[in-house]
Design a protein that fits this description.
Blueprint lengths: L1 H36 L3 H5 L10 H4 L2 E7 L2 E7 L5 H12 L10 E3 L3 E4 L10 H7 L16 E4 L12 E4 L12 E7 L1 H8 L3 E2 L2 E2 L5 E8 L7
Antiparallel strand pairs: 1-2, 1-10, 2-7, 3-4, 4-6, 5-6, 5-7, 8-9
Length: 224
């Protein structure tokens, strides 16, 4: 009986050890599966964009060329007045977010508006997330006159995202209310052409598409 009891006890210990071992292996496999399916940390956090953290001095040397079928509009930045608006616009252009979007709103003799990422041929989750980021209002002393580029937004304060407008006329009633961040240095006649589109209300029948937006050092020193 003593031998049988010891044999029985050893058998129980062996079974318990097997259960624990199997459970541990199962847990390790589950953890491995979770790790294999986990999204990389950098994707969850969001990759930094080219001009994140860039100083005003650097942003002031950069210009954006908006290439469209009617021609190219060249814009210089005014980061000393609206640094976060400039940073956002430079990032949109540098990452290709503006490519294939359209000038989806036109007010005759006044403005053309672009930057609606939902008009992009690449519209999807990433652009939707990008369009949800809000910018602070940065109203400054810059007058809203022909050639000025500013952020568009609803009535709510600090609600600008990616939409911008180019003035083809004067808009003094906008002074001190909207974030003027750039100035057209070449191609204002292209903006005029876009402004002459046939409209349904403020929506063009055939919106002009931005083929590409390019960031590069300005060809000449600002103000000269």
């Amino acid at each position: 009986m003593k031998i049988n009891f010891l044999s029985f006890l050893f058998a129980l210990i062996g079974i318990a050890a097997f259960v624990v071992s199997s459970s541990a292996q199962s847990g390790q496999q589950t953890d491995a599966a979770k790790k294999a399916n986990a999204r990389p940390a950098e994707v969850l956090a969001g990759a930094p964009e080219p001009f994140d953290g860039a100083p005003v001095e650097k942003m002031a040397t950069q210009c954006v060329s908006i290439e469209t079928e009617p021609g190219t509009i060249e814009i210089e930045m005014i980061p000393e007045i609206a640094p976060e608006s400039v940073r956002g616009f430079l990032n949109l252009a540098a990452t290709g977010a503006l490519d294939t979007t359209t000038f989806s709103r036109v007010v005759k003799g006044f403005i053309i508006q672009g930057g609606n990422l939902s008009t992009s041929e690449k519209w999807g989750v990433e652009l939707s997330k990008r369009m949800s980021r809000k910018l602070p209002d940065e109203p400054g002393l810059v007058k809203h006159v022909r050639g000025i580029v500013a952020m568009a937004r609803p009535e709510e304060a600090n609600s600008a995202t990616t939409n911008f407008f180019i003035l083809v006329g004067n808009g003094h009633h906008l002074d001190g209310k909207f974030s003027a961040f750039g100035r057209v240095t070449k191609g204002i006649e292209v903006a005029d052409t876009i402004n002459q589109a046939n409209l349904q209300g403020e929506k063009p029948d055939k919106p002009v598409r931005i083929n590409r937006a390019v960031v590069a050092p300005c060809k000449k020193q600002k103000g000269k």
